[in-house]
Amino acid sequence: MELxxxxxxxxxxDTKETLHRFTQVVGKVRLAASVRRNHWWNVPFHLSGxxxxxRPMGQVDGxxxxxxxxxFVAHRLVVSTADGRSASFPLVGQSVASFYRQTLETLxxxxxxxxxxxxxxxxxxxxxxxxAEDFEHAAYDPVWANRYWQVLAQVSLVLEEFxxxxxxxxxxxxxFWHSFDIAHTRFSERALDQPAQVDPVTRxxxxxxxxxxxxxxxxxxxxxxxxxxxxxxxxxxxxxxxLTPASARWIELGGSHLAVLPYDAARAEADPRATVLxxxxxxxxxxxxxxxxxxxxxxxxxxxxxxxxxxxxx
Length: 314
Known about the structure:
With 314 residues, the chain is α+β, with helices and mostly antiparallel strands. The chain contains seven helices and eleven strands. The strands form two sheets. The protein has a six-stranded antiparallel β-sheet with strand order 6-7-8-9-11-10. Strands 1-2-3-4-5 form a five-stranded antiparallel β-sheet.
């Protein structure tokens, strides 16, 4: 399997827009049926051997323990319960409306009842249209959906490798369905006193100083797939620091700066994996330096915190 295969947004945009909304339907099921965690860590998807998964949920709300998985090999949505029952339906040929209906029907067939307070997209252009009324988004190309999962799996392992280098508080490597990006975040111990007008979702997500790293497949703001990093709150002069490799750059987005390495630029390098790791490290060093983090104390070379243990050869 090619590392970082081509993923031109123009060729799978319709599938991406439909799949994004499919994940939001299931993401809202996860939000309703899981115990809340700090920084919303209960909400994202995680990678599985065939796609993405909600992980087990239920029980505390009276439902059986269950998972919902996107299988991007067989191209089905699969609902499984802890007692061994399962039900599924195909992803191909679904509109958002039919996907939403079949998801609820499949859950109900297994004795699972989940109420979605806001059954419509979150922070998308059609956020006012209920899922049940969206017949527009109905494209699902199995080839591109499978490649999407392949890229996610490859990027997730690079992020896991990068995550191992830090000994402080970190998020899992996880896939956020609201923005359709895979991300990993490092935190400092500084709590943030945010303005009262900041919305509840943002307040919890950014309740601590952080530096985040991730990858997304392109959108209206950036029309190409890219690796990224940002520091929040952004320290002064952050965008003056150099990034690695030379093809990486700082861009201004939403009033702050984002470190960006285009996916195709990484693909063109002799060692794409090492290039992405170097990019994340340069963005981390820039943010950590400007925000006065103790980089040496937080380092975890080779994934080991005990200074008496040898670092294993790579």
